[in-house]
Give the backbone structure.
Amino acid sequence: MSDPNPTIFVHIGLAKTGTTYLQGLVWRNKQALADAGVLFPGRPGDHFLASNDLLGQPFAGNPKSLRPGAWEKVAAPARTSPDRALITQEILGRATPDDARRAIASLAPGSVHVIVTVRDLSRQIPAVWQERVKNGSRQTYTSFLEELSPAAESESRYWRRQDASVVLSRWGAVPPEHVHIVTVPPSGARPRMLWERFASVLGVDPQVATKHPPRSNTGLGVVEAELLRVLNATLRPRAGSFAVYARAVKHHFATEILPGTASADRIVVPPEHRDWVSERGREIIERLKGRGYDVVGDLADLEPTFAGQEFVSPADVPKERLLEAAAECVTAQLLENDQLRRKAGKRPAQRQSRPVE
């Protein structure tokens, strides 16, 4: 006899492992997934607010991101779904053991399964620094790497949020057989392979998702990321709130204007840090291997690789290159503003010219 209670998949990240792509794909194909037996309750933004509510913390200090009752708004339809449901938000990777237990209890009588997407550290570390810069950080790449290294005085919060073995320990109330590790395919793999792996955990044919997601987080090159980091000294305080910064900078300037303004040198792990990054990556693999989790993909995908990676330090970018990229951004922004004004039917204010004395 089949279980009358729903199976509820809780996707907890990790951040920068294709989560934006997967969430966009799920949202665009919400009805097709529902027809296949998987409910995606609410809208994508609801899962973000729900996660903040569960953890009891506003995102980036923005009080508007913390709304009491937001978790229940997502949990209620999930636990009463007729078959399966999906909750997905990488902020859940920050949950404490108490947070995780509250989430599980709120989803009863549903059977909770945790999904975690994981990527190799050789790609993950640069991606997380870049994402922090997109969130307003002024921290240099050099300083960021020093915080992560074994020589650091204390364990960085990076590892509390990005070491899958540590994150999953906090979700230990979920039985190991209900934990699914989906490894991010290596560079060069088929674009939809991550979705195919994720869909197999949900128990749906990946082909039901016929609508493409919105463009995922756009990556920045070395020059572009360093330019944004420098600009953050002015942008972040002038924005006032993170909500304004996110709207104007993260989701527009850093996505629509900045990418492509400079050469596409990739941000990679510098040679002097590669030994300890490789060792930490192998340690994570070994810890995950011994816990009885369901692995979709291959843990070998998590082995850091540096073949063919040429390191260009953001700190060594000449000021001339930053100025060139900044000029490209100003030009693109001015032309875009002109188009928007034309569409809105606005004309530049006519000012009376004055003779030059």
About this structure: Strands lie at 7-11, 38-39, 84-88, 111-118, 179-183, 294-296. The first strand starts at residue 7 and ends at 11.
